[in-house]
Protein backbone atom coordinates (compact mmCIF):
# COMPACT_ATOMS: atom_id res chain seq x y z
CA UNK A 1 0.00 0.00 0.00
CA UNK A 2 1.39 3.40 -0.98
CA UNK A 3 1.95 6.16 1.51
CA UNK A 4 0.04 9.35 0.53
CA UNK A 5 2.74 11.55 2.09
CA UNK A 6 5.38 9.98 -0.16
CA UNK A 7 3.10 10.45 -3.19
CA UNK A 8 2.71 14.12 -2.30
CA UNK A 9 6.46 14.57 -1.94
CA UNK A 10 7.04 12.83 -5.29
CA UNK A 11 4.52 15.14 -6.96
CA UNK A 12 6.30 18.18 -5.52
CA UNK A 13 9.69 16.83 -6.62
CA UNK A 14 8.46 16.10 -10.15
CA UNK A 15 6.79 19.49 -10.38
CA UNK A 16 9.95 21.30 -9.30
CA UNK A 17 11.98 19.31 -11.87
CA UNK A 18 9.48 19.92 -14.66
CA UNK A 19 8.96 23.56 -13.76
CA UNK A 20 12.54 24.67 -14.28
CA UNK A 21 12.69 28.31 -15.40
CA UNK A 22 14.15 29.47 -12.05
CA UNK A 23 10.84 28.88 -10.19
CA UNK A 24 11.02 26.14 -7.59
CA UNK A 25 7.64 24.63 -6.76
CA UNK A 26 8.37 23.51 -3.22
CA UNK A 27 5.77 22.33 -0.73
CA UNK A 28 5.78 25.80 0.85
CA UNK A 29 5.09 27.47 -2.52
CA UNK A 30 2.36 24.95 -3.34
CA UNK A 31 0.68 25.61 0.01
CA UNK A 32 0.91 29.35 -0.63
CA UNK A 33 -0.73 28.90 -4.05
CA UNK A 34 -3.49 26.77 -2.50
CA UNK A 35 -4.06 29.44 0.16
CA UNK A 36 -4.29 32.19 -2.47
CA UNK A 37 -6.77 30.17 -4.54
CA UNK A 38 -8.89 29.48 -1.44
CA UNK A 39 -8.88 33.18 -0.50
CA UNK A 40 -9.90 34.09 -4.05
CA UNK A 41 -12.77 31.57 -4.04
CA UNK A 42 -13.93 32.75 -0.61
CA UNK A 43 -13.95 36.39 -1.74
CA UNK A 44 -16.05 35.45 -4.79
CA UNK A 45 -18.46 33.41 -2.66
CA UNK A 46 -18.79 36.24 -0.13
CA UNK A 47 -19.57 38.61 -3.01
CA UNK A 48 -22.25 36.19 -4.26
CA UNK A 49 -23.66 36.02 -0.71
CA UNK A 50 -23.77 39.83 -0.55
CA UNK A 51 -25.59 40.03 -3.88
CA UNK A 52 -27.97 37.30 -2.75
CA UNK A 53 -28.75 39.24 0.45
CA UNK A 54 -29.08 42.61 -1.33
CA UNK A 55 -31.52 41.23 -3.92
CA UNK A 56 -33.64 39.41 -1.30
CA UNK A 57 -36.92 40.93 -0.21
CA UNK A 58 -38.53 40.37 3.18
CA UNK A 59 -40.84 37.71 1.74
CA UNK A 60 -37.86 35.93 0.16
CA UNK A 61 -35.97 35.85 3.45
CA UNK A 62 -39.11 34.72 5.27
CA UNK A 63 -39.57 31.87 2.77
CA UNK A 64 -35.92 30.86 3.21
CA UNK A 65 -36.24 30.84 7.02
CA UNK A 66 -39.50 28.87 6.96
CA UNK A 67 -38.00 26.33 4.54
CA UNK A 68 -34.86 26.10 6.67
CA UNK A 69 -36.89 25.50 9.85
CA UNK A 70 -39.39 23.19 8.10
CA UNK A 71 -36.57 20.95 6.87
CA UNK A 72 -34.84 20.54 10.22
CA UNK A 73 -34.88 17.97 13.01
CA UNK A 74 -35.99 20.76 15.35
CA UNK A 75 -39.23 21.13 13.39
CA UNK A 76 -39.76 17.36 13.37
CA UNK A 77 -39.24 17.21 17.15
CA UNK A 78 -41.53 20.14 17.97
CA UNK A 79 -44.21 19.04 15.53
CA UNK A 80 -44.08 15.42 16.75
CA UNK A 81 -44.44 16.59 20.36
CA UNK A 82 -47.35 18.85 19.35
CA UNK A 83 -49.16 15.93 17.67
CA UNK A 84 -48.61 13.63 20.66
CA UNK A 85 -49.91 16.27 23.12
CA UNK A 86 -52.91 16.97 20.86
CA UNK A 87 -53.89 13.30 20.65
CA UNK A 88 -53.29 12.57 24.35
CA UNK A 89 -55.22 15.68 25.40
CA UNK A 90 -58.22 14.64 23.31
CA UNK A 91 -58.22 10.94 24.31
CA UNK A 92 -57.67 10.90 28.09
CA UNK A 93 -60.98 10.08 29.79
CA UNK A 94 -60.46 12.36 32.84
CA UNK A 95 -60.03 15.37 30.46
CA UNK A 96 -63.34 14.63 28.69
CA UNK A 97 -64.87 18.05 29.38
CA UNK A 98 -61.75 19.76 27.84
CA UNK A 99 -61.71 17.69 24.64
CA UNK A 100 -62.00 19.88 21.52
CA UNK A 101 -61.15 17.27 18.82
CA UNK A 102 -62.50 13.81 19.54
CA UNK A 103 -61.07 10.85 17.62
CA UNK A 104 -60.77 10.46 14.60
CA UNK A 105 -59.22 13.98 15.01
CA UNK A 106 -60.99 15.78 12.16
CA UNK A 107 -59.69 19.20 13.30
CA UNK A 108 -56.14 17.83 13.44
CA UNK A 109 -56.47 16.49 9.89
CA UNK A 110 -57.72 19.90 8.74
CA UNK A 111 -54.74 21.63 10.42
CA UNK A 112 -52.31 19.18 8.84
CA UNK A 113 -53.86 19.77 5.40
CA UNK A 114 -53.54 23.54 5.82
CA UNK A 115 -49.93 23.16 6.95
CA UNK A 116 -49.04 20.96 3.97
CA UNK A 117 -50.90 23.28 1.55
CA UNK A 118 -48.93 26.34 2.70
CA UNK A 119 -45.59 24.75 3.52
CA UNK A 120 -45.06 23.09 0.12
CA UNK A 121 -45.24 26.31 -2.00
CA UNK A 122 -43.03 28.17 0.50
CA UNK A 123 -40.39 25.44 0.29
CA UNK A 124 -40.67 25.47 -3.53
CA UNK A 125 -40.12 29.27 -3.56
CA UNK A 126 -37.00 28.85 -1.47
CA UNK A 127 -35.75 26.03 -3.71
CA UNK A 128 -36.32 28.17 -6.82
CA UNK A 129 -34.23 30.95 -5.29
CA UNK A 130 -31.52 28.43 -4.35
CA UNK A 131 -31.54 27.07 -7.92
CA UNK A 132 -31.10 30.60 -9.28
CA UNK A 133 -28.19 31.14 -6.90
CA UNK A 134 -26.60 27.81 -7.87
CA UNK A 135 -26.94 28.76 -11.54
CA UNK A 136 -25.23 32.10 -10.84
CA UNK A 137 -22.39 30.32 -9.00
CA UNK A 138 -22.00 27.82 -11.84
CA UNK A 139 -21.65 30.74 -14.31
CA UNK A 140 -18.92 32.20 -12.06
CA UNK A 141 -17.19 28.80 -11.87
CA UNK A 142 -17.33 28.52 -15.67
CA UNK A 143 -15.84 32.02 -16.05
CA UNK A 144 -13.01 31.19 -13.62
CA UNK A 145 -12.29 27.89 -15.38
CA UNK A 146 -12.36 29.59 -18.79
CA UNK A 147 -9.96 32.29 -17.60
CA UNK A 148 -7.63 29.67 -16.08
CA UNK A 149 -7.71 27.69 -19.33
CA UNK A 150 -6.78 30.81 -21.31
CA UNK A 151 -3.90 31.54 -18.96
CA UNK A 152 -2.67 27.95 -19.25
CA UNK A 153 -2.82 28.19 -23.05
CA UNK A 154 -0.88 31.48 -22.91
CA UNK A 155 1.76 29.84 -20.71
CA UNK A 156 2.00 26.85 -23.04
CA UNK A 157 2.40 29.06 -26.10
CA UNK A 158 5.05 31.07 -24.24
CA UNK A 159 6.89 27.86 -23.32
CA UNK A 160 6.66 26.69 -26.95
CA UNK A 161 8.17 30.00 -28.09
CA UNK A 162 10.97 29.62 -25.55
CA UNK A 163 11.58 26.08 -26.76
CA UNK A 164 11.58 27.15 -30.42
CA UNK A 165 13.97 30.00 -29.63
CA UNK A 166 16.20 27.56 -27.74
CA UNK A 167 16.28 25.19 -30.71
CA UNK A 168 16.94 28.10 -33.07
CA UNK A 169 19.72 29.44 -30.83
CA UNK A 170 21.21 25.95 -30.59
CA UNK A 171 21.23 25.64 -34.39
CA UNK A 172 22.81 29.08 -34.75
CA UNK A 173 25.38 28.22 -32.10
CA UNK A 174 26.13 24.92 -33.85
CA UNK A 175 26.61 26.65 -37.22
CA UNK A 176 28.85 29.32 -35.65
CA UNK A 177 30.82 26.61 -33.90
CA UNK A 178 31.30 24.81 -37.22
CA UNK A 179 32.51 28.05 -38.81
CA UNK A 180 34.96 28.57 -35.94
CA UNK A 181 36.21 25.00 -36.33
CA UNK A 182 36.64 25.52 -40.06
CA UNK A 183 38.54 28.77 -39.44
CA UNK A 184 40.75 27.05 -36.86
CA UNK A 185 41.37 24.17 -39.28
CA UNK A 186 42.31 26.59 -42.09
CA UNK A 187 44.60 28.58 -39.75
CA UNK A 188 46.18 25.33 -38.61
CA UNK A 189 46.69 24.25 -42.20
CA UNK A 190 48.31 27.61 -43.09
CA UNK A 191 50.62 27.38 -40.07
CA UNK A 192 51.65 23.87 -41.04
CA UNK A 193 52.32 25.04 -44.61
CA UNK A 194 54.48 27.89 -43.32
CA UNK A 195 56.37 25.54 -41.02
CA UNK A 196 56.89 23.07 -43.85
CA UNK A 197 58.02 25.86 -46.24
CA UNK A 198 60.81 26.82 -43.86
TrEMBL record:
It comes from Paenibacillus aestuarii. InterPro entries: DUF1003 (IPR010406). The keyword Ligase does not apply. Keywords: Coiled coil, Membrane, Transmembrane, Transmembrane helix. This is DUF1003 domain-containing protein. Residues 145-197 form a coiled coil. The chain crosses the membrane at residues 69-89, 105-125. It comes from the Bacteria.
